[in-house]
Amino acid sequence: MPEVVPRCPHCLIELTPVEKAAGELECSQCRGMFVPGSHVKDAVLQDAAEFEALAPQTAAPDVKVAGITCPVCSQPMQELQLADVVLDRCQRCGGTWL
């Protein structure tokens, strides 16, 4: 079975690994970035419990389907509002599109 090539959910071009950032991928066209779930927890939020609270099992009023699929596992992503930043997060693998 051929390996799935991660593609930008917006530009649909192949994502490239970010130098010196294991597991992170970026789009050379729109400069969007996919960050694995474990990296987001470490880099964006200090409190892991707060991060997990952002991933409800069912959609809440402030969570909606983002209209894009995860570049790593091809599942629909959810759009989350975190302060003034909108993140697209995959519930399946925990990755985040910035």
Number of helices: 2
- The count of β-strands is 7
Q: What is the rounded distance between the termini?
A: 30 Å
Q: What does the main sheet amount to?
A: 7 strands, antiparallel
Q: What is the N-to-C order of secondary-structure elements (H for helix, E for strand)? A: EEEHHEEEE
Report strand order across the widest sheet. Answer: 1-2-3-7-6-5-4
What is the structural class?
A: alpha+beta
Mean pLDDT: 79
Which parts are unreliable, with pLDDT below 50 for 5 consecutive residues or more? 57-61
Relative helix content: 10-25%
Shape descriptor: globular
Rg computed from alpha carbons, rounded to a whole number of angstroms: 13 Å
Strand percentage, roughly? 25-35%
Keywords:
7 strands, seven-stranded antiparallel β-sheet, 98 residues, 30% strand
Model description:
This protein has 98 residues and is α+β, with helices and mostly antiparallel strands. The chain is built from two helices and seven strands; from the N terminus they run βββααββββ. The chain has a seven-stranded antiparallel sheet. The termini are far apart.
